[in-house]
Amino acid sequence: MAAGETEVDQYRQLRPTDVDTLLISGDLDFATPAEFATKELLPTLRNGHQVELHNLGHSADTWSYEKPASNRLIIQRSSTPGTWTRAGTRRGR
After folding, report:
1. DSSP 8-76
2. I want to staple 28 with a disulfide (CB 3.0 to 4.6 A). Which of 21, 57, 78, 91 is the partner?
3. Spatial contact of 71 and 63, defined as CB atoms under 8 Å apart
4. How confident is the model at residue 45 (pLDDT cuts 50, 70, 90)?
5. Where in the sequence is the domain holding 36, given as residue range(s)?
6. Residue 1 located in a structural domain
7. pTM of the model
8. Confidence of residue 63 (pLDDT cuts 50, 70, 90)
9. How many structural domains are present in the chain?
10. What CA–CA distance (Å, rounded) separates 28 from 58?
C-alpha cells in the first residue's frame, strides 16, 4: 500500500492482469452495460475476452435461459484458454 492509502483504497482502482478472463455480458443489461466492460475492464485484462449474449440482461436466470448453450460457452472457453475466436466475442486491448 502507498503512504496514506487505506486497506480499502487499494481496491478502488483497476490493476492490469495477465489472467485469462472471460467477461459475459447481456445486450439488455442496463445495470452493467456491455460497453462498460468493453471500455473500462478489457483494457486492463491483457488476456481478456468478452462475449455479449443477445436478448439477455443482468439476472440469475441467464444461466437457465438456454442451459446447454451456457454450459457449452463455459466448457469451451475453459478447455481452450487463449483460443476464443467465436463470432460475437471482443478481444482485449
Report:
1. TGGGSS---B-S-EEEEEETT-SSS-HHHIIIIIGGGBTTEEEEEETT--SSTTHHHHTHHHHHHHHHH
2. 57
3. no
4. very high
5. 17-91
6. no
7. 0.64
8. confident
9. 1
10. 7
How many other CB atoms sit within 10 Å of the CB of residue 64?
Answer: 9
d(CA 47, CA 57): 24
CA distance 77 to 72: 8
Rounded distance, CA 49 to CA 5, Å? 31
Interstrand relation of 89-91 and 48-53 (parallel, antiparallel or unpaired): antiparallel
Do 41 and 48 touch, CB atoms closer than 8 A? yes
Within-domain flag for 3: no
* Residue 12 belongs to a domain: no
In a domain, 6, yes or no: no
Distance CA 29, CA 53 (A): 10
Output phi, psi for 22, to 5 deg: -110, 120
